[in-house]
Amino acid sequence: MYAPERQQEILRLARDSGRVDVVSLAEEFQVTAETIRRDLKALDRAGLLRRVHGGAIPAGRLDFEPGLAERESTAADEKDRIAKAALAELPAEGTLILDAGSTVARMAAAIPPESSLTVVTHSLPIAARLADHPGIQLHLVGGRVRHRTHAAVDAWALRAYGEIRADVAVLAANGFSVEHGLTTPDLAEAAVKRAALTAARRVVLLADSSKYAQEHFARFGALDDVDLLITDNGLTPEDAGDLERAGTEVVRA
Amino acid sequence: MYAPERQQEILRLARDSGRVDVVSLAEEFQVTAETIRRDLKALDRAGLLRRVHGGAIPAGRLDFEPGLAERESTAADEKDRIAKAALAELPAEGTLILDAGSTVARMAAAIPPESSLTVVTHSLPIAARLADHPGIQLHLVGGRVRHRTHAAVDAWALRAYGEIRADVAVLAANGFSVEHGLTTPDLAEAAVKRAALTAARRVVLLADSSKYAQEHFARFGALDDVDLLITDNGLTPEDAGDLERAGTEVVRA
DNA sequence: CGTGCCGATGCCCGTTCATGCCTGATTGTG
DNA sequence: CACAATCAGGCATGAACGGGCATCGGCACG
């Protein structure tokens, strides 16, 4: 097995499980720990992994708190299905706004190489993922970067979204319901989401069913601002019916 | 069997099995390893295969950024020393502008955790690296993202730098000399560098000695715009003297 | 039919690369 | 505060590499 293959595999493992450790990798690949360390160092320098004592964690995580691995793995299946279903809703070409969020990030990572899109995002991990994509013209929205979500917020971000007009915005929300609309815990982030929502002709919301009927501190839109909701089949058909009556098309992936 | 036929077949084998190795191919086609290496090199240059030590892997199977990885390995030692020396020039607290560039990125990665800085950057890799640094308030400069350098450029970036004032800017250049000043191959990038330079009270340039006396297409400043140049000892003391007489302090790490 | 050119191939040899091993320093944990 | 795990750097080794040169074989042209 060649070094780059091994590194690629390490990267995959890291992204899948949220972290890797030197000793298990050495055993797994039948090489010494030194070699693994060299691999991790290379991946670290390339910015794909973050080296920590004893192992490494994937770079560009939405947050790196201990709770993350668990949160990531929670509903991972649903998120993947949602991301895949969302891909089908993307135009083959045109302009796209991508909100910050792990499901949106998964979708972004799966955009096929032959696409020809203009993408605007204020999410650092998504931008990092798409910067190499040959078919994508990427525009980064600046601003203060929130540690927790790695998303740009505040004046620069708001102004940037105020100056553009996109075909589709793919948004994420921490909570959604007919009564309380779209909510998220942070005010600054909500303001940016609202600006992104306003800048697009068509709004697609990606949210797994655990977000349904949740409400958080900051509201950034009403449900009927959303043209299409993509969620998983944890949402009951009755709830989906309620949402559709409120004017939002619902896809249960 | 003619060379193009053989290469075609090598490509097919590589795509089928995910990898090929020099020795087996040599045996398979009854030619020497040198010939296979030449074939692989040709396919690599054509972008169809990715060459690795001992063999090759079909292109697209790895998602490394070859350009970035390659630049990382060039003059890695010098760059590390320069980056380390540059750290000593950073204020303990205050506002910092970080330009795009591998040496600057290394410096950024080495900023101690106990620092308390406000950092502004238009470089995506650097931002990704600093986004979860607890002591750093990070501000991202938006704009169109260039594939080659992963840096934001154009109107949004220029305006953002026009609106701020920082204590120190850490810049990179592809070429520097007393006569031709600071140059880089891309016009858009040069404009952003100039804006960053203008926005800072003190300008530190990181450039290894191979950049000395180089000149590239786009000029973004004169040498005396630079307060401090940090380079390696590949720069002769005489050349350093010339630079100092031109008004720039020189550190040879 | 001969001849000279040129690309492809093979061979040689100094250099680089990937890996493993060792040692001393560093770090995290109990 | 001490112990065990982990890390970084230096060194050794065998495989792989790359450039220079010689050879071979086809092809065009006279």
Automatic annotation (TrEMBL), chains A, B:
Pfam families, per database record: DeoRC, HTH_DeoR
HTH deoR-type domain: residues covered: 3-58
Keywords: Repressor, Transcription, Transcription regulation
InterPro entries assigned to the protein according to its UniProt record, in alphabetical order: Carb_Metab_HTH_regulators, DeoR-like_C, DeoR_HTH, NagB/RpiA_transferase-like, WH-like_DNA-bd_sf, WH_DNA-bd_sf
UniProt GO molecular function: DNA-binding transcription factor activity
SMART domains to which the protein is assigned, alphabetical: DeoRC, HTH_DEOR
Physiological role: Repressor of the lactose catabolism operon. Galactose-6-phosphate is the inducer.
Protein name: Lactose phosphotransferase system repressor
Record lineage: Bacteria, Bacillati, Actinomycetota, Actinomycetes, Kitasatosporales
